[in-house]
């Protein structure tokens, strides 16, 4: 998400520069996002010199053993978790701030907003979803890193650890909601006609009365 936010910043404000070096700004980061976690966690989970005792009744079977080492587990959380959240917040805030400043300037500057409105709205929506999911996890981790708080540890293991999956589940719906075609289709959906609603209620009432009459006749 951090790389996507940075890419959209260059795509909005430095489009020519971005297109000129698209391999460096687009394809290389995407390849890195795919290759880096595969190599890193394949090594840490399968090759790192520690013994993992899996607990099959726990979340993620108790986790890999490297997570329970203070130094390595903290480094993994800081660089692969906290840094991503911080960069996403900074990049998104920078885009919003710059758009608002330039929107208040000359009319020629407002063309940036008109041209890139879809990208900006989608970025803000995705970043908001990402931050709502991950910021509570990062806050719990940072607090427990410096001080033992059992209630936060219990909160993370019982709720926030599953809360992370919401970003993956809701991401497609957020992307669809950012498409103007989808918004127009939703706006064109008309509520049920009052007469149709009345007819449905009348049919339900008739069925209910018939059922009551059958019960009375049987008795």
From TrEMBL:
What Gene3D superfamilies does UniProt report for this protein, alphabetically? Rhodopsin 7-helix transmembrane proteins
Query: What are its GO cellular component terms?
Result: membrane
Q: Which keywords does this Swiss-Prot/TrEMBL entry list? A: Membrane, Transmembrane, Transmembrane helix
According to the entry, every stretch annotated as the G-protein coupled receptors family 1 profile domain falls at 1-175
Which regions span the lipid bilayer? 21-44, 77-101, 121-146, 162-180
List the subcellular locations. Membrane
Q: Which domain of life does the protein's organism represent?
A: Eukaryota
Alphabetical list of InterPro entries matching this protein: GPCR_Rhodpsn_7TM
**Protein name, UniProt field:** G-protein coupled receptors family 1 profile domain-containing protein
Q: What is the organism of origin for this protein?
A: Adineta steineri
């Amino acid at each position: 998400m951090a790389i996507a936010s940075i890419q959209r910043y260059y795509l909005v404000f430095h489009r020519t520069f971005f297109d000129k070096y698209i391999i460096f700004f687009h394809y290389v980061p995407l390849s890195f996002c795919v290759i880096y976690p595969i190599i890193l966690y394949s090594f840490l989970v399968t090759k790192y010199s520690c013994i993992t005792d899996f607990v099959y009744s726990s979340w993620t079977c108790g986790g890999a053993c490297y997570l329970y080492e203070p130094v390595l587990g903290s480094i993994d959380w800081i660089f692969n978790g906290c840094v991503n959240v911080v960069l996403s917040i900074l990049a998104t805030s920078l885009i919003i701030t710059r758009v608002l400043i330039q929107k208040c300037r000359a009319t020629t500057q407002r063309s940036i907003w008109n041209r890139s409105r879809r990208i900006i709205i989608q970025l803000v929506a995705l970043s908001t979803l990402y931050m709502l999911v991950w910021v509570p996890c990062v806050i719990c981790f940072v607090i427990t890193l410096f001080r033992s708080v059992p209630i936060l540890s219990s909160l993370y293991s019982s709720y926030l650890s599953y809360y992370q999956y919401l970003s993956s589940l809701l991401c497609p719906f957020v992307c669809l909601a950012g498409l103007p075609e989808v918004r127009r289709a939703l706006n064109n959906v008309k509520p049920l006609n009052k007469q149709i609603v009345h007819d449905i209620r009348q049919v339900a009432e008739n069925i209910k009365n018939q059922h009551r009459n059958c019960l009375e006749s049987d008795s």
